[in-house]
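Hi Y.,

Following your request, here is the sequence exactly as I used it, all 315 residues.
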Amino acid sequence: MAIDNANPPLVCILTYNNLCMFEFGIALEVFALPRPELSKWYDYKVIATKSGKIHGMGGVSIDASHDLSLLAQATLIVVPGWSGEVSDALRVALTNAHANGVRIATICSGVFLPAACGLLNGKQATTHWCYAKKLQQEYPEIKVNPDVLYIDEGLMLTSAGSAAGLDLCLHIVRNDFGHKVANIVARRLVLPVYREGGQAQFVPRPITKNNDLFSPLLDEIRSTLNEDWPVKRMADKAAISSRTLLRRFKDATGESPLTWITMERLALVRELLETTKLNINQIASASGFISPELLRHHFKRHYQLSPLRYRSQFI
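Below is the corresponding structure, written out as tokens. Let me know if you'd prefer a different format.
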């Protein structure tokens, strides 16, 4: 977007009762912190979504001196998490602002506010992985992608877990002021201006349902992931037919045998990358991938970054 130096872009940061303070702090840190080293920057206002005192998590009180009427003048509205009710006044103010071309950016659970207003229908959106299923169930019109750090749909921007809000805010700065300014802000935050990967790398593996038939088999596979485990071998171990195994395996684990084994192997790869100095060839052999290339393919496909880039986070 074009930045008018005489009229800096106005960022309106919403507040509500039980305000998520970390997400609120992210918005303040990026958009409200004075930056005398920059000739152009944002103006900001803290907006109360309800009348009366605003209370944040941890017993903090927020003095938000501006009301919803200011949203009509905003360039960007930031929703730092969300745990409040969506009043008619808030719904109208947010919807009208959006219709007039105001961008709305959400951090973590903040996505539930524009979702409740119908502003994400037919669009892609993300949120913290632990809220993704709830978001999809409550708003099936939204195309929920739980694997990325943020999504830019033009006027609607959503980010994943709390810290991913920083990635989204830096993305907004980069779009508004360019890479050079975004790099300056990122250095002050002691962050990379662009972080590779997605939140899939932080999602824990689902726990398999208790199942007397498969528990011993799964335990054996986990202890011998370096070995080949075709469906027939699994079926023989479980003393059932291959067809029965395929049907009942999905019921027990939620995944096909091939997907389950691949994910278990990737979990082992992550553990070895985090805790050992084994090279990729050694890790591929230990985890049952037939080649380093196949390991890299599956790792990059699921986690959106290379194994070595992942390991660098733990050095």
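The longest strand covers residues 10-15.

Thanks again,
Q.
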